[in-house]
Amino acid sequence: MTKVVRLLIINILSLFIFCACDSSSQPDSSPKGNHDNRQCHDNTKLYIGTTPTFDCLPLFIAEDAGIFAKHNLHVDLKHYTSAMDCDTAFIGGSISIMASDLIKSEWLKQKKQCDISYFSTTNAHWQLITNKNSRINKLNQFGDKIIAISHNSVPDMIATLFASSSSNNSEKFIVPINDVYIRYKMLNSALVDGACLTEPWSTLSLKNGHKSVYNSKDDNIDFGVIIVNNKYAHDDNIKKMMSILSSCYNEACDSINKNHISSYSNTLAKRFNMSQADIQKLHDIKFRHIVQPSVESIKRAQEIFNKIK
Fold it and tell me: Pick from 188, 203, 219: which residue ends a domain?
């Protein structure tokens, strides 16, 4: 398949995805997506945006294992397959908490004037995975290859690094595919030469024979964070619930670390649309308790964002 044909397919799919997301306005509790942008907040419940990525796994376990219920904490987990849709909900007010990254946080603060605070760092890191058929081993070998990213985020940062490391004008072949499922499937179908992915999709891609040429973990920055829209966090009852959420999150992390990821196959199948075969490919990841991002990490993310914005 020629590059022109692949780009045409990608552009058509991107347009289809955008139109499908834009036309959806009703809440959906299934893993396919949830795009309710109404400001539905009250001070008796926490509205949290999630995506099918492992930075959200402690939240899924806290709900599925009854940890929230045990602590009498009322939480509405709103599920999005696209980080862009989750961002829209966060900006619009239908969620007040979401898993994100430090680059995205700067975009929200500087471009969308969101008043945010950090609930915690997460274990999230992003890799640039190349298709096994492309025979790419280093960033500067990309040339005019096609790479799939999500916008205004760590993957955007990685794409900028990818473009600057290539001798050719690669930037025009960086395509936004915000739906993580589609980005993963495009890599495995060889529609793109590379894709920016986080867990569990990065591990599954490597297990499928693809190759990692960049890992954000090597930058020694904890890019993954859970952020709060302060517009909805000033109420005393909300603050009390946030404190309980911390305890629930930590308890879920302890449970995952003790029982292993594969013990939660029902949650993985339900929340990530994963097959049992793929679940068996996953390796254990140690999940950290609630901890604030360092001043150095935030400052570094600000510097990176100001270069790529």
Answer: 219
- The CATH number of residue 212's host domain is 3.40.190.10
Range of the domain at 215: 3-13+125-219
SS (H, E, C) 248-259: HHHHHHHHHHHH
Per the structure, the count of domains in the chain is 2
Taking a C-beta distance cutoff of 8 angstroms, is the pair 134, 211 a contact? no
Percent of the chain with pLDDT over 70: 81
For residue 219, give the nearest of 103, 125, 87, 112 by alpha carbon: 125
| 227 closest CA partner among 127, 73, 107, 71 | 107
Provide the CA 225 distance to its chain's centre, in angstroms. Answer: 10
What pLDDT does 99 receive? 97
Q: What is the pTM of this model?
A: 0.87
Q: Residue 128 pLDDT more than 60?
A: yes
